[in-house]
Structures are given as structure tokens and as C-alpha cells.
Amino acid sequence: MDHHLILRVVTKLLVAPILLYGLYVQFHGDFGPGGGFQAGVIFAVGFILYGIVFGLRRLRKSFPDYFVHRLVALGVLIYAGTGVVNMLLGGNFLDYNVLAEEGYKGQHWGIIAVELGVGVTVFGVMMAIYYSFAGRPPRLDDKDW
Amino acid sequence: MELALTILLFVALVATALTIALVRRLFAVVMLSGVFSLLSALLFVLMDAVDVAFTEAAVGAGISSVLMLGTIALTARSEKRPERYSLVPLAVVLLTGGVLIYGTLDMPNFGAADAPVQLHVGPDYIRKTPEDIDVPNIVTAVLASYRGFDTLGEVTVVFTAGLGVVLLISGLGRRIRRRREGAD
């Protein structure tokens, strides 16, 4: 897409706000609409937009495949790990009350942790799926569209 | 006002769906399914389900369109014309739709106070969230805390789906094999 000057300029302007918005949705999910699922998708959209306009190769340089694949598993680990930490602290699996002295504060920490896990996994999966689809040699030329 | 908007959105939704069924150019179909998702998201907002609307707009209109375009790039850009038209699929669709609509006649009205969903655990969540968890978004409280186990299951489903796609079509195995052969 080297010849699409407008697309490239607009994309450069848009990527940073999209990523910032993704982070906002991630960490503001317990106060407004949103949460890990949506944040992971929005965060991935920012990178995918960059990949579409500037080429998959440049995107893969900053986010290599192996890194994305590890993120997919890392999210589930964060989520389940939060549950295990609760058990080590003497509570039930995913019972966040034990994470702080007061129950509701522990709940806040627990929710932030598991939402982070959800976000990381969803981000990783979206990127991995995009890489899988876009990484194969296409049968259509740019002109065929 | 809200009723008029709802009717307008539903009419637009049906029109989009019919157009999707008729159009043969797959690029147009992908764009129209994005429109379909946005319209559904607007409907969810009208029903006060902002979290669902958010997800629908991000996943349905955003990511799905990109993945569909990626699929078109790998396959073909227009649908094949069927060799002969058959009435059986139409009959099946009409019958299923009719049964579904008949089924909804038994359901409580939208937002009815005596609907089962408002009487079971819902009131408890609404009453207890401020003291138990103290977050303003009850949806998040239910999703991440009260029903944390279910959400863990959902994340595992997403994980498994991603794993399946990567294993099946990313060509990772081929690349690893090639690297191994190169090393030998």
C-alpha cells in the first residue's frame, strides 16, 4: 500500500489513540462499559490497522510470531494464576477477598488481574489469527479487488 | 422516539440481511456484514446493554471484517452462481424462522419486571455488588467476580480457538520443519 498516502497519514494519526483507548477500556472496565475482551480486541485492532497499511513484515518485526503465541498462553496463566494465588493465601479458587485486608479491595485487585489476563489472551489470539490469515501468500492481486 | 428508532433500526437490519443474501460480490458482503454488526450494536445500546454493544461493534464490525477480507484474499472474490435454484433451503429457513418467532410469543415482554431473569439471582447481584465488590459496573462484577469461573472457561475457549487456527493454517509447522531441514 505504498502509494496510498492519505491512508498512511491517517493511520499514523489513528494508531496511538486506538491503543490508548484500548488501555482505557482495559483498566476502566469496572467503572464504565468494557473490560478485557473488548480491550484486547481494540488493542489488536490498532496493530492490525498498522499491519494492513504498512505491511505485515513491519508489524511482525515489532511483534514476532513467537511473542504473540506466548501472549495467548500468558493471559490464561495470569487468570488461572490469580485463582491459585488466592488458594495459596488461604481462600477459595478465584475468591479475591483474601488479596487485601478488606474484602472489597481484594475484589478490586482480583478483577483487575483477571481482566488483564482476559485482555492479554484476546489480544494474542486476535493477532495470531490475523497473522495466520494474512501471512499466507494471497491468491488475489491488489488490482483484482 | 425510542420505539421509532428501534423500528427503524430493525427495518435497516432486515434490509441489510436481504442485501447480503442477494449480493454476489464478497467484498460488498463483508462490508454489509460490518454494517449489520453496527446496526445490532445500536440496537443493543437502545436496550441499555452497552457492554454487549461494545463487544459487537469491536468484534463484529472491526475484527471480523478484517478476517473475512483476509479470507477473500486467500480464496475468491465473488460467490459462485448456483447451478439450479431449489426451494428446499428457503422452506427450511422460513420454517425455522417461523418456529423461532412462535417460540418468542411465550417469552415475557422486553424489560418486564416479572420476567424470570429479573427474579432469580439478578436482584441479589444488584443489591450486593456495592457492599461486596464496590464497583459501579455490575456487569464487570458479575463477569469477573461472581461468575469468575465461567469467564475462566471463556478465556480458555478463546485460547483453544486461537491455538486451533494457529495449528491449522499459520504454516508454523512448515516453517519449523524447513528450519530443521536447513539445520541438518
Order of helices and strands of chain B: HHHHHHHHH
Structural class of chain B: mainly alpha
Q: Treating each run of at least 4 consecutive H or I residues as one helix, how many helices of chain B? A: 9
Alpha carbon gyration radius of chain A? 19 Å
The two chains with the largest interface, and their residue counts, are: A-B, 57 and 51 residues
User: What's the assembly state of these chains?
Assistant: heterodimer
Characterize the biggest β-sheet of chain A. Answer: none
Domains of chain A, number? 1
Q: What percent strand of chain A? A: under 5%
How many distinct beta strands of chain B?
0
Task: Characterize this entry briefly.
Chain A is an all-alpha fold and 145 residues long.
Please explain how this structure is put together.
The complex is a heterodimer of chains A (145) and B (184). Chain A has 145 residues and is mainly α. Chain A has one domain. Chain A is built from 5 helices and no strands. Chain B has 184 residues and is an all-alpha fold. Chain B has a domain of 80 residues. In chain B, 77% of the residues lie in helices and 0% in strands. Chain B contains 9 helices and no strands. In chain B, helix 2 packs antiparallel against helix 3 and helix 7 packs across helix 8. Chains A and B meet through helix 2, helix 4 and helix 5 of A and helix 3, helix 7 and helix 8 of B.
Question: What order do the helices and strands come in, and which of them pair?
Answer:
The complex is a heterodimer of chains A (145) and B (184).
Chain A: H1 5-27, H2 36-54, H3 56-62, H4 65-88, H5 103-134
Helix pairs in contact in A: 1-2, 2-3, 2-5, 4-5
Chain B: H1 2-22, H2 26-46, H3 50-74, H4 88-104, H5 116-119, H6 122-132, H7 138-146, H8 148-169, H9 172-183
